[in-house]
Amino acid sequence: MNTRNWLGIVLGAFVAVLVFAPGAGATTLTVNDTTDDIGAGGTCTLREAIDQANINLDGRGCVSVGPYAQNDTIVLTDPAGYTLTRAQTVTPEDNLEGDLDVNPLIAGTSVTITSTVPTTIDGGGVDRVLDVRPGGILNVTAGITIRGGRAEYGGGVRVSGAGDATLNLTGVTLTDNRATTAWGGGISSGGTTTLTNSTISGNVALNSGGGIGVTAGTTSLNSVTVSDNTADANGDELGDGGGVWTFGGTVNLANTIVAGNIDGSDPGSQAADCVDDGGAIASFGNNLIGTTTGCDYAANAGDRTDQAPLLGPLAANGGATLTHALLAGSPAIDGGSAACPATDQRGISRPQGVACDIGAFERQPDALPQPGAAKPKPKCKKRKGKAKRKGKGKKRAASAKRKKCKKKRKGKGKRKGKRKRARA
C-alpha cells in the first residue's frame, strides 16, 4: 500500500473520530510496550493506556501529550501486534485482567484507538478483546485487526446495553472471534454501533449471530462486508443468522454485503445470512444479501437479494487489513450508491467504475492489476535475422525487458553453436 493511500485512511479515520467525539481537547497516549502488563512501570502498554484514558489521569506509566478531556487518543506503533494474556479471574470489569474495558469515570468519555502501522489486537483466547461499558464511547480506526477473542457472547467486542455505550469501527477487520455459549461471534451490541468500510469474517457463535448479534439499540453498517461467519456452530438447532442476528434492536444496512455466511442448523431450518428474532433489519438501499431465507428482509432501491456475491477468500488484497476481494462478474461491482465513503477499506478511491461497489472492497478496472495478483512475465519475440541500424550518433535506450531477451537469445545462440560443432 502506498504512503498516500495509508495517510488518506488515517486522516479519514481521524475525521470520523472528530465527528463522534463529544468534547474539545484531548490527550494522546502512545503505546510502546506490546506486553499485557499493568502497573506503574516506565513503559506504556495498551491496557495501561486504556486505564489512564478511563480515569483521565496519569499513573500507569504512559506519558500523556496534551490535556485529558473527553476524547483521548491511544496510538499503537508496533506491527507485531498486542496479545492479551491476563486471564479473567474476578467479576468486576475493572480493566485489570481479561478483556480491555473502556469503562469511563465520566459518562460520555470517548477513547480512540488508532495506529501508525498495520497491527492486531488479539484476545489470546483469554476473554473477548474489547468491552465498551455503560457510558463509554470507543472508536477503533483504520489499520487494526481485532481477533482471537473468546467469551460467552460478544467474542470480539461487546457493546453494553445498560447505558449509552457506543462503538465506532472504521477500516477494521474482525476475524477469528468466538461466542462460546451464546450470540455475537464478532460483535454483541446492546448500545449504538456503527461500522464503516470494515470486514466481519471468520467469526463463530455457538448460538446466533456468527458475525454480529444485536439485542438492543441501533447498529448501522455502511460499505461493510459480512461473510464467512458461522452461527449454530454445534448444529443443535438453537441458533440462526450466520451473518447478522437481531433480537431486540435495529440493524441498518447501506452499501453492504451480507452473504456467504453459514448456519449449522438442519438444512430445513437454516437462516444463513440474516435473521430477525424480534428486532428489525432495515435496508437503506444498495445492499447485497446472499440469501433472504429465514430473514424478514424488505428490499430497497438498488438491493440485490438471493445472489451469489462472488467473493475471494479473506486475504491480503492490499491495504493494512485482510479483505474479501470482489471477483470478476460480482453483482456488487458498480452496485453501490453515491453515499459510499470516498475510499474503500484499503484506501482505494471510490468509485473505480460508473458507481461505487457494494461492500468494503472497491474493485479496480480489469485493465489494472488487482492487488495481490501475479505480474505477467515479459515475452521475448523471436528474430528472424540480425537487424542492423546505420547512422552516427543514434542511441537506443535498452529497457530491462529487451536486455533480458537479448541475454536469452545470446544464450540460445551459444547452445546452437555448440550443437553444430558437436555434429561436425
Essential attributes:
single chain, 424 residues, alpha/beta, Pectate Lyase C-like, 10-stranded mixed sheet, 9-stranded parallel sheet, 3 helices, globular, disordered C terminus
Describe the overall structure:
The chain has 424 residues and is α/β, with parallel strands linked by helices. It has one domain (3-326): Pectate Lyase C-like (3 Solenoid), CATH 2.160.20. It contains 3 helices and 33 strands. The strands form 6 sheets. The chain has a 10-stranded mixed sheet, with helices on both faces. A 9-stranded parallel sheet has the order 4-7-10-14-18-22-26-30-31, with no helix packed on it. Strands 5-8-12-16-20-24-28 form a 7-stranded parallel sheet. A hairpin with a 7-residue loop joins strand 32 and strand 33 (323-326). The radius of gyration is 26 Å and the shape is globular.
Helix content: 10-25%
* CATH class group: Mainly Beta
- Indicate the structural class: alpha/beta
| Total individual domains | 1
Low-pLDDT residue spans: 1-24, 382-410, 412-424
* Major sheet: arrangement of strands: 2-1-3-6-9-13-17-21-25-29
CATH overall fold name: Pectate Lyase C-like
| Terminal-residue CA separation | 58 Å
Number of strands: 33
Q: Would you identify the CATH architecture?
A: 3 Solenoid
Mean pLDDT: 85
How many helical stretches?
A: 3
Strand percentage, roughly?
Answer: 25-35%
* Shape, per Cα inertia axes: globular
Largest sheet: 10 strands, mixed
Question: Using only CA atoms, what is the Rg?
Answer: 26 Å
